[in-house]
Amino acid sequence: MDIKTASALHRLRLISVPEALSFPALLIFGSLLSRVSDIDYLMMPLGILHGILFVIYAVFLLDVWNKAKWPLKKVALFFLFALLPFGGLYGERLLKRDEADSVIAARAREAAQA
Q1: d(CA 110, CA 70)
Q2: Which end of the chain, N or C, is surrounded by fewer C-beta atoms within 10 Å?
Q3: Residue 64 near residue 12, CB atoms below 8 Å
Q4: What is the pTM of this model?
């Protein structure tokens, strides 16, 4: 794996956690509190924050698709993770495992060449 692909995967991994947590925060603190109480000033900032994080996640996912040459099924699965509350946390776990596997494979290749 080259450095551009590895950095694209790392960026996707870094954005997946805040994106995964922003959606439940919007649902709980934005929607629920505005319906149950008079606290309605959280809806717009949380909605904007979640929207920005979702767009960044989608852009990073497209970048990984382009650089890592993922199959469409895998890209669709990671996009689905972005739509589910806390789904990005599971996606981050998968990316972390893939990242560790690629580091181990790179070290094995280096050892075999030496």
Answers
A1: 24
A2: C
A3: yes
A4: 0.83
